[in-house]
Specification:
single chain; mainly beta; Chitinase A, domain 3; Thrombin, subunit H; 2 domains; five-stranded antiparallel sheet; four-stranded antiparallel sheet; 9 strands; 39% strand
């Protein structure tokens, strides 16, 4: 079966940056399983997998526009430390959700200097070229339940 919209696909992958450093991998874990054509993966990888079959291996380079988007400077802000709960410890790397005009956004604390806290709403991989080394482990037709939920279910069903 060829990968097409409404197929459930399982892949093993290694993701590296342009510097060759591994950013993510399924090595030592279960394969990543997703419903093709439903936005469960970044667009560039979904497109690269289209038409492939079980057992195929591919290397694909995804530009930022087809990955997590360009890095957007307007998503970086400095805010007063007084905006945070003084009883809650605050550290670089902390993530939290904020409400914006266009809905919720996950931001990360990138710097704390005196009374200023820098936060960044960009995805950590925004603006980066993503290099995937992929092996397709399985391709199957999605069940009606998976299609109605918009994502693949693991062995034995789903947990929601």
């Amino acid at each position: 079966m060829k990968i097409a919209k409404d197929c459930v696909v399982s892949i093993n992958y290694t993701l590296t940056g342009d510097d060759g450093n591994v950013m993510d991998s399924s090595d030592g874990q279960d394969p990543l399983t997703f419903l093709q054509g439903h936005g469960n993966l970044i667009p560039g990888l979904e497109k690269a997998l289209e038409g492939k079959t079980t057992g195929e291996e591919l290397k694909v380079s995804i530009n930022p526009e087809d990955g997590y988007g360009p890095y957007r400077d307007e998503l970086v802000q400095d805010i007063p430390k007084s905006n945070f709960d003084p009883g809650q410890p605050l550290a670089v790397g902390d993530q939290f959700q904020v409400e914006t005009e266009v809905g919720p956004l996950v931001v990360q604390v990138t710097k704390i200097e005196g009374e200023n806290v820098s936060i960044d709403g960009n995805h950590p991989m925004a603006g980066k070229t993503l290099n995937f080394d992929v092996k397709i482990e399985e391709v199957r037709a999605a069940t009606e339940e998976e299609l109605s939920h918009g994502h693949a279910h693991g062995p034995g069903g789903h947990n929601h």
